[in-house]
Structure formats: C-alpha cells, structure tokens
Batch of 4 targets.
Target 1
Amino acid sequence: MKRRIYFLLPDIHHARRIVNELLLARIDVNHIALIAKEGVELEDLPPASLLQRSDFIPALERSALLGGATGLLAGLIAVLIPGTGAVFAGWAVLAGSTVAGAGIGALAGTLIAVDVPNSRLKPFMQSIEQGHVLMLVDVPYDRLEEIKKLIKTHHPEVEIEGVEPTVPPFP
C-alpha cells in the first residue's frame, strides 16, 4: 500500500534537487509527479498525468454508480410492466440494464471529468499560479516517515501539505 505526499516547492531548481534525492532513496521516477504553472518547462522532470491533474477517477466512480442505479431502476420498471417480464426474462433485463447504465454513465462522466481540475489540488492552485511547483510522491507506507524526514532534512522550507492513500496508484 502506498501513500501520496503533496508538497509545494519554490521553483524548478528545488524540485530537481528533491527528485534527485528521491531517486537516490530508491523511489521510482514513475512514483514522482510535478505540476507547475502553464508555460513553465519541467525539462526532464516527471509531469503529472491526466489522471493526476483531473477528477477522472472520482468522476468515473460516481458516474458508473449513478448510471448503474439508473439502469437498475429502468430494468425494474421494464420487468414490472405487465406482459414484458416473461418475454424478456426479468433477471436478464435487470442485469443488462444495470451494466449498460453503468457503462454509459461511466463514459459520460469521464468525458466531462477530463476537463475538470482535480479537486484535491484546488488548495494548491493559487501557489502554482504564483510560480511554485507542486510535487506528488507515492511512497510505500512503511517508508513514509523516512521519506518525509529526508525531504525536511535537505529542504526545511518545504511543508508537507498532505498525505493520503493512492487511488489509483501510479502505473
């Protein structure tokens, strides 16, 4: 199980030093991501992916659940209409409409969510617009304190802004 650490850095130069320190501490580069102001060149530093920058995953979960519930309700209505239940084999209608509703809901929700900024990043957006760099690092739970201490030892000005379970984990 991994935990995601969020912290702001003053600039790209600080980010580069911390990335190098994390790599030396054997944190895989695929578990490090940076978000900077539009137009700031990250050079060879790892940028945040679309999944990390948008509300894609929460929207997928919500819309699939809502679509599935809607499909189930539609299936129940279809089964309860006199004469159609026996013709359509009620359980198949319920299952099919639930799965179809979840699929359609997930598709619609994720198409919209791709353009919605990640709500978890909202507190950091003003600082990012002022030129700070947000770093997200996924670390194994048993190394969490070690990595936080490493960051604070080399960069005492850095404030760890949040720690949460990774959902989904970095690929």
Target 2
Amino acid sequence: MSAAERIMATGKRKNAIARVWMTRTGDGELIEVNKKSINDYFKIETLRLLAQQALELTNTHGKFNFYILASGGGISGQAGAVRHGIAKALEHYDNSLRPVLKKAGLLTRDSREKERKKYGQKGARARYQYSKR
C-alpha cells in the first residue's frame, strides 16, 4: 500500500449504508463520519465501541485514518454499517486478518430488515384487538 493509496469498502446494516475510505497517511487517529469526528457523530459510547470493534479486535487502532459517509436508516444501523465497512477495508488491506474478523462475525452483513406493515393490521404482526361483543 503506497502512501497515497486509499482502500474503499462498503458496509451495510438494515437500511444504513456506510462508504469507508481507509488511508495510511496522517497520524492514524482520525475517524471521520460525515465530516464530523466519530465522538461527535456517535454520541452514545456503545455505538462508538461498536463502530470501532474491528480495529480493537485486530490491534490496528491508530494505524489508519478513516473517512466515512454514512446514510440511511438510524444511528444504530449506521454504527453497524460503519463496523462492517471498516472490517471489509481491513480485510482488503491485509488478508491475514480475515480469520479473526470472520470468527467475530464482522464480515457477514446483518441482513435483518424491518418487516412491512400489513393492511388491516396495526403493525407487521400486531393485530387490532378482537371484540366479541
């Protein structure tokens, strides 16, 4: 990987999509999500830890800079999409990290989607209350 080379990966969860660009240049402490630092974007500590899980698992925290564009879904889905995107970028950079990431389930896209609401019902599965009399 040359000094100016960037690795691009896409992470997805629910309806959220995160496009991740990973570079080796800079101090390595920068993780920018939608032009904000990760601490400003993900206000909840557990979401920050979730998004950076792949870095902690592979001991690569501080070695790369990440520029991420997250869109769609909610904040939790975006954190999962960022986690997936970072894991895919790390795997693309160094294939020897694949077994660690695969065992932790970070390379598998969480395909669970919200079930649609059906007509004549309150929700996807919830029915209106039945009244006998």
Target 3
Amino acid sequence: MAMTVDLPALEQTAAPRAVSARWRHARPALGLLLPVAVALGWELVVHLGWSNGRLVPPPSKIFATIVELARTGELSRHILATLWRVGAGFALGVVAGTILGAISGYWGLARRLLDPTVQALRAIPSIAWVPLFILWLGIFETSKVALIAVGVFFPVYLGVMGAIASVDRKIVEVGRIFRLSGPAMIRRILLPAVLPAYVVALRVGLGLGWMFVVAAEFMGASEGLGYLLIDGQQLGKPAQILAAIVIFAILGKTTDWLIEIASAPLLRWQDAFGARGGA
C-alpha cells in the first residue's frame, strides 16, 4: 500500500520550528535592549539640559574617552595587562579548586579534614589578603595574580565538592553493578553528573576574578583597568572612570560568554527546562 504524505500538516509543523529557530538566534540581542535604552535615555536627559552630566557623563562623552584612549595606545596596554592578570589568576584558581574540590567531594575523610579550614578561609574578606600578599610577594605581578586566584578558588572548590557529594547514590550503585572501574566510574557517571554544576562554578569564579582584579590593581599597579579607575578618581575624570567600568563589563561578559559557548557541546545531552532556553 502506498504511503501518503500530508503536506499541509508538514508545513504547519515546520513553520513553528522555523519561527523558533529565528527567535533563538535573535534572543542574545535582547540582552542589549536594557543597557542601550538606559544609555539613550541618559544621553537625552543631558541633551535636553535636565542634567549637566558633570558627575555622570553621557554615553557620547564616555565613548569619546574610550576612542581617545584607544588612539593613544593606552587602552590596549591597560586591557592586555588586566586580561593577563585575570587569565593567570583564573587558571591557578581553577586548577587548585578543581583538585581540592574533587578530593573533598569524593573522599569523605578528606572532606572532614579539609573543608572546615577552607570554609574559614573563605570568610576572610578579599582586602584582608592584600597586605599579606604584598609582604610575602611584593607589589608586582605575583601578588596580583595570587589575589585573583584566591577569589576564583573558593566558588570552584565549592561547586566541584558540592556536585560530587550530591551525585545520586542510585546512579553510583548502577555503575558498581556493571562493575565499572574507578576511572570508568568517574568518566561515565561522576563527570556527566558534575559537569553542569562545574560550568556554573567556573562562571561564578570568573566573575569573582574580574572583581578581585580591581583590588589587585590597587596594589601599586602602573597599568590595567583598575589603574585607570584610580587615575580617573585622582584627576577628577568621571568619564575615564565610567569608561573603565564599561570596558570591565564588556570584557567580563565576553569571557563569560566564551565559557558558555565552550561548554555547550559538553552539555548538549541535558533535557532540563533551562537547558533549551526555557519557555
């Protein structure tokens, strides 16, 4: 018997999928609506004379400041210095947090021995480390990278330890029933279960790394976006301060987006509500 194909039904099914695909591609642009609207609104307020824009310059003046810094070559120098510090500190913090978090999560005795000390250290304010790192490591790059690594370490450690410790025991028992070896258990059961929380921990750690780099660049830095903030404050240049803040926001969002993009293929198996963009 010949099979008939209902073309109208196929077209009706394909149309919502095409609309959904276009909506998914356009969705990232929605995140720009709020900052663009705020920027245009403030530009209009200053243009109409409702504010002189002295303490909070309009976006046009901030953009002109960024252009001028880029023209003189200062902007690239400061951005590269900050990116190097954040990248080095992030790498060190991720390695240490992943290793110690995996040990504490997988081995109960290590968790009882190690975790109380780590939790106590986590409660110490970041600024409290500054004089100690200056005394130990000096005011140059080593102390700055170490401070950033401290900020990155704690969320990565907590994310890994908590994810491993909360893996469903029934899944582990299934692996034991199939007589999986230790490496196979980690690769086929623990790693997929831990990976979503690990990606979130990396993103939180990266955000703290960008926060800690400002404190790090307060420690006698002669270049970096944090130095631009201090220089703008001392010279009374609010446009320079806001320009540095805007660049911080752009770089922070870009690096967070890179982690999200890099981890997306590893999390494609997820069938959670949020994994497919929600409603």
Target 4
Amino acid sequence: MEKQQIRQAILKKLKAQREELRQKKSLNIKKQLFSQPPFITADTVMFYIAKDGEVDTTAMIKDALEMGKKVVVPVTLVKEKKIIPSQMIDYPRELEEGPYGIYQPKRRYVRKVPLKDIDVIIVPGIAFDRKGNRLGRGGGYFDRFLAKLKKRNIPMFGIAFKFQILKQIPVFFHDIPVDKLIYA
C-alpha cells in the first residue's frame, strides 16, 4: 500500500477506537515510557499534543511537569515549513488550536528551547513498522525536525497503539526512524 492509503486506513481506525479503550492503552504506554532509563534521567522531554485519536499525551505531559521535568511541545511554523520546540509551563491553559488543527502554545507563550537542551523526544506517527520507520501526517515537518535531533543522538521514542504497528511501511531517504517503539 502507498503512504496515503495507509494513512487513511489507520486514521479511520484511530477515530473509530472507543475513548475508554484509548485512555486505557494510553495509560499503559505512559507507564512503559516512564520506566525507560533515558526518560527517567531526562531533564527536558519533548512531547506532541495528540490529535484524531492518537495515543493521548495529556497525562504524560501533566505527570512529567509534576515530576519537575521541563516539558517541550512543537510549534508549527507553516511559512517556514518547520517545527520549533517550545517550553510548556501551564498545560493545557497555554494552548490553542494551531495549523492543521493541532494544538500548540499561544503565541505569547512560545518559549523557544535550544535543541541541545532536549534529552528525549516522544514522536507522533500515524503508523510505524518494527524497524522504527514512521509514517507521519504527510507534511514532512517532523522528519525535517527529527533530522536535526538525529545528529545530536537524542533518544526518540515512537508511541502507538498495536494496530498502528505494521510489518512494513514505505520509506524514503528523508524519513527518520525512531530509536524505540512503545505500544499497547
């Protein structure tokens, strides 16, 4: 199957999943993530804000903040076709709907964080394969961003539901795989 066909099929499954099951699996994924040594020792963790039935990162973000970790989320700059990492202090009060319907910090709350300060990144994906290759939403924003982080050896965790893990997905030269997959 082509990327767009896979994307549509998985998005349909994500949206059809019962919310109670989504929350239960998201909590399981959170427990697994929070037990990973790179996460435990990280001072600064970058999360994504979930959309369209993705693994819910709300409890992860809140708990990481309560643990005293610096939490960073992506801000999408459409004209520049890039993502900048921004520190989140008062979640979710500082958020508003941004480009593509994805929540991000309101302009007045954007606090740019240098890439060198990020210790771990939690990467969104519509689908992953067992090698860590990911299929995003198709804009290439995360792949361009991850390419910069890959050079810095920052651990990248893909989180997903089991049905999002495929045997194989089409990969292009610019696609950046995650280091580890966590799923339920």
